[in-house]
Amino acid sequence: MQAVNGVTFEVEEGEFFGILGPNGAGKTTTLEIIEGLRQADSGTVEIFGQSPWPRNPKLLPRIGVQLQASAFFERLTAREQIRTFASLYGTAQAEADEMLEVVGLADKAATPAEKLSGGQAQRLSIACALVHGPDLVFLDEPTAALDPQARRNLWDLLRDINKQGRTVVLTTHYMDEAESLCDRVAIMDRGEILQSGAPATLVRGLDSMTHISIESGLLSLTEAKALAGPGDDVTDDGVSLQFSTPSPAPLLAALAERRALGGLRVRGATLEDVFLHLTGREYRA
């Protein structure tokens, strides 16, 4: 089975580019080939006009890599960890300490890496990838397994990294993450890129339903179906009464006339809808 099959894309300088897809889509393999950690069976890869394979020492100072699984030296503190990484690139200890400030870990400098929370460990991993001031940063599912608050905090850090002028290539299986952070995304599944472009452009190009939900019990299912137009879908799971419609305005007006707007939520198309449209199946996180 091919992990990656004919993947082609370009990333512009200063861009925040996302490779988006479920687990097993081929995202990590693609990233490892680009980073020079794995040899491709065929095809070519260029970073700053140079090939990363065989391992290219000229590229190492210009790229930073945060792997999917972080591994730190045992019994070293956060400060000792990042200073060790800095020494590999000839970066001064003072600059390493400043990077702890950048990622919000200054107060954890004396804490052993194994005592850091999941979000703090990810921040330290990213700090180690940035400590030598690379122009291009690869981040492989940096928010995987983090709680919602830690994810959002890390998003702010990633935005700041990009605003500093660094090019960021991110893999993720979180649709909302890619939609929030990335200038462009490549949607990938089964080793192939299905579609690429700006998230908003991909969503706008999808002829999708608008999803409207209200509290269950405000209308009976029979009444709701009577309000629905041609092509509308109506379901009631006992918690929410949900409409999927290509024409939300008349339906919303009808609900308002019946004072049935309790718990109203309106959702347009998202990247997840784009994925479902492209693959014809439910998204697998």
Report what the structure shows.
One of its GO terms (cellular component) is plasma membrane. The protein is α/β, with parallel strands linked by helices. It is built from ten helices and ten strands. The longest helix has 16 residues, at 148-163.
In a few lines, what is going on in this structure?
By secondary structure, the protein is of the alpha/beta class. 34% of the residues lie in helices and 18% in strands. Helix 2 (78-88) runs parallel beside helix 4 (118-130).
List keywords for this structure.
285 residues; alpha/beta; Rossmann fold; 6-stranded mixed sheet; 4-stranded antiparallel sheet; 10 strands
Mean pLDDT: 92
CATH C-level category of the largest domain: Alpha Beta
Query: How many separate domains make up the residues?
Result: 2
Helix content: 25-40%
CATH topology of the largest domain: Rossmann fold
Could you say which structural class the secondary elements and strand pairing correspond to? alpha/beta
Care to count the β-strands?
A: 10
Sequence stretches where pLDDT stays below 50 over 5 or more residues: none
- In CATH, the architecture of the largest domain is 3-Layer(aba) Sandwich
Proportion of beta-strand residues: 15-25%
Q: Could you give the distance between the termini?
A: 21 Å
Order of helices and strands: EHEHHHEHEHEEHEHEEHEH
Please work out how many helical segments DSSP would assign: 10
Which term fits the overall shape?
elongated
Fourth-tier CATH superfamily name of the largest domain:
P-loop containing nucleotide triphosphate hydrolases
Major sheet summary line: 6 strands, mixed
Order of strands, main sheet, comes to 2-3-4-1-5-6
**C-alpha-based Rg, rounded:** 23 Å
Protein name: ABC transporter ATP-binding protein
Keywords: Antibiotic resistance, ATP-binding, Cell membrane, Membrane, Nucleotide-binding, Translocase, Transport
GO molecular function: ATP binding; ATP hydrolysis activity
Subcellular location: Cell membrane
